[in-house]
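Researcher: Quick test of sequence recovery. Tokens follow.
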């Protein structure tokens, strides 16, 4: 990878993660933990196979990503963030906050994976009943879904698929994001086509503005 050749901390950081796709690889590993190569490719629609291999190799060489040879039944290489790589979380969250207003004008043809909600959901949502038992909220958009675990004051991505979530919301992504960001209440979101199943208290627990 080409270097900026500048004695500047920002330039040195961009030498490592400034190439196209690099920070999105970090995003996938930050959200999903250990990933197989096929998991990374699925989470990065549009990337060429050889380019993904090059980017992962570069991140390994720079100490951002480490490779683990998993035993059977997985029997495949798993990629993880190193401790150094995990330190990029704050930068990714800041970039996500900066980019959030751009979603309002994003083309409808843009691809989407539900697990990408994990980072913004942790920014927008809070568990307002930390003393209550944990609950699971399933969010469905664009043919994919994600489970968010709500409990102990936190809202976090749950990689384990639940057969019986406590509540399910589904709809167009702008409507779902508007609801989660507090720009729409539940009645407004439903009027815009959102479907909500399950206990309304689950949504109220993380989004007080969403009331029927």
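Model:
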């Amino acid at each position: 990878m080409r270097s900026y050749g500048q004695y500047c901390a920002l330039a040195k950081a961009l030498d490592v993660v400034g190439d196209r796709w690099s920070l999105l690889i970090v995003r996938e590993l930050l959200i999903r933990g250990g990933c197989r190569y096929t998991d990374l490719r699925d989470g990065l629609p549009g990337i060429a196979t050889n380019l993904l291999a090059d980017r992962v190799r570069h991140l390994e060489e720079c100490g951002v990503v480490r490779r683990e040879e998993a035993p059977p039944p997985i029997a495949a290489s798993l990629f993880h963030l190193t401790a150094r790589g995990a330190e990029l979380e704050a930068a990714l969250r800041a970039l996500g906050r900066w980019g959030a207003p751009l979603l309002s004008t994003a083309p409808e043809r843009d691809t989407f994976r539900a697990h990408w909600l994990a980072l913004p959901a942790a920014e927008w949502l809070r568990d307002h009943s930390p003393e209550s038992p944990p609950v699971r909220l399933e969010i469905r958009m664009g043919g994919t879904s994600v489970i968010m675990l709500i409990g102990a004051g936190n809202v976090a991505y749950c990689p384990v698929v639940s057969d019986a979530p406590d509540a399910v919301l589904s709809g167009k992504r702008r409507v779902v994001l508007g609801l989660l960001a507090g720009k729409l209440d539940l009645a407004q979101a439903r009027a815009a086509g959102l479907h909500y199943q399950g206990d309304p208290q689950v949504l109220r627990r993380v989004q007080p503005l969403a009331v029927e």
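The longest strand covers residues 144-151.
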